[in-house]
Every structure is written in structure tokens, then in C-alpha cells.
Design brief:
Length: 102
């Protein structure tokens, strides 16, 4: 029987949420930089900054909703209950004599 591994489990919801929020925050921070640079840019740099400011919200939302990459879609689970071998000595009380001898 193959033993389950803790590394085969997906990340916890808290860790997944934290990673998605970090991706979103980075993308939106770049957008703010693009908005500020639009005040000082000239020529085709103005177009690049405007395109970044317009497109980055969509990219940020898509990146945030993607979630964690799934390397192994199936989670390994332990098997059913394993039957232990019977031990007749354990079933008899200690103060009673052995019944099998009679």
C-alpha cells in the first residue's frame, strides 16, 4: 500500500489566499506606477504607461483568480482499515486459566 505524503496535499486556503493577494498587490502597484509615470512621460512612453494602466487591472484579477498551480490533481488518501492478526492470548483475562488446555 502506498503511504500518503503531506507534500501531495494542496496548499492551505490561508496560504493560497496570501499568495493570490501578493500577486494582485504587485500588479496593482505596477499600475499605480504607470499612472504616475503618465504625468511625466512623453511620446510613445505615454502610450506604454497608458496601456499598462488600462490592461493591468484585468491581468491582476486573472492572476489572482488562477490560484495555486496544481502539480498533482489527486490527493493521496490512506487506505481502508487494516485488520490486525488475531492474538488469542490477548482475548483471555489474565486471572482465568487457559481454556484450551482442557
Amino acid at each position: 500500500m502506498k503511504q500518503p505524503s503531506i507534500t501531495s496535499l494542496p496548499p492551505s486556503p490561508d496560504a493560497d489566499r496570501r499568495a493570490r493577494m501578493l500577486k494582485y498587490t504587485i500588479a496593482m502597484s505596477i499600475r499605480v506606477v504607470c499612472l504616475v509615470l503618465m504625468l511625466f512621460a512623453d511620446g510613445w512612453w505615454l502610450f506604454v504607461c497608458a496601456a499598462g494602466a488600462i490592461c493591468l487591472p484585468y491581468v491582476a484579477v486573472v492572476l489572482a483568480n488562477v490560484g495555486a498551480p496544481v502539480s498533482n490533481a489527486t490527493v493521496l488518501r490512506p487506505g481502508g482499515v487494516v485488520a490486525l492478526p488475531e492474538h488469542p492470548e490477548r482475548d483471555q483475562p489474565e486471572d482465568e486459566p487457559d481454556r484450551q488446555a482442557s
